[in-house]
Amino acid sequence: MSIDPATALRAAGAPAPRRTGEARRLLVAGAVGRLGEALLNEALARGGYDEVVALADGDATMSLGVRGLALALLDRLPPLEDVCIAQTLDPDAPGARSFHGRDAPFALVDPAAMPRIAQAAAGAGAHRLVLVHPLPAWQQMSALHLGLAGEAELGMANLPFDGVTVMRPVAPSASAGGGLVQRIVGVYLSLQMLMLPKSVPTLTSAQVARVAVDLLRDGEPGLRVLGAAQIEARLAAPR
After folding, report:
1. What integer pLDDT is reported at residue 36 of this predicted model?
2. 30 burial class (0-12, 13-18, 19+ CB within 10 angstroms)?
3. Which secondary-structure segment (H or E) carries 225?
4. Is residue 163's pLDDT more than 80?
5. C-beta separation of 78 from 123 below 8 A
6. What is the residue-wise DSSP string for 123-189?
7. Which of the four pLDDT bands, split at 50, 70 and 90, describes residue 150?
């Protein structure tokens, strides 16, 4: 008997049954740099979760010393309510991690890791997924960015979440440091930001984190894709 691949994918990521009275937990994958720190702060302050779990890189047994914040390895996730995955565009770039080193225990997330994290979270019972997937400014000047991009996002959208939201803030420009090629890219991106139309706003990490947590809290089912302009509109909308 043949098995439909889409059916097999859904079965592999089928959420575990929820127990009555179980703690509500949010998994934050990619809790590094300014955006990761903002996501953790926002989730702890306004998320309404009993516990926020940061995906760990390496030893997950250390104490973070922050009330309501825990660490977990991907293969040892506790039961989850929701998951937020924040992609690190260039893990090797300066500034990918916070300079003070507080995010050293947290895992960086590259595009190849996103489907595996989403599937593990779905298997741990997560009901909603918010994916923060920044795109360069020039890719947000048409409506193409408001659809799913690539097999990774399509695969995550097919997992058994009640709701999937993809957020596409403008990707930060490269650091001025590094080699000659990095500096040239940095100059190009800086000029690109100067020519950015007002319809494609730049947003702070705190603003992106605020909308991400709001999207998890609203519980809206189905698939949503929000570019930078749509994220800004949600910030301006009355609560």
Report:
1. 92
2. buried
3. strand 222-227
4. yes
5. no
6. HTT--EEEEE--B-GGGGSSGGGGS--HHHHHHHHTSS-SEEEEEEPBPPPPPS-SSHHHHHHHHHH
7. confident
CA 130 to chain centre: 6
Cα angle at 234 between 229 and 239, to 5 degrees? Answer: 165
74-131: per-residue pLDDT in tens?
999 999 999 999 987 666 666 678 777 788 889 999 888 999 999 999 999 999 999 9
Token pair for residue 85? 């995955």
SS3 197: coil
Which burial class, exposed, middle or buried, applies to 7 when counting CB atoms under 10 A from its CB (0-12, 13-18, 19+)? exposed
Q: Which stretch of DSSP H or E encloses residue 205?
A: helix 205-218
Q: Is 167:153 a contact under the CB 8 Å cutoff? A: no
DSSP assignments along 53-75, one per residue? EEEBSS---S----TTEEEE-GG
State whether residue 200 is helix, strand or coil: coil
φ/ψ of residue 111, rounded to 5? -55, -35
| CB-based contact 142:108 (threshold 8 Å) | no
pTM of the model: 0.78
Q: What is the pLDDT of residues 53-63, one digit of tens each?
A: 999 977 555 55
CA distances to 22, 106, 145 from 122, in Å: 16, 20, 25
Cα atoms found within 13 Å of the Cα of residue 20, Cβ hemisphere only: 0
- In 74-134, which ranges are E strands? 82-86, 128-132
DSSP assignment of 11-33, as one string? Answer: HHTPPPPPPTTPPPEEEEE---H
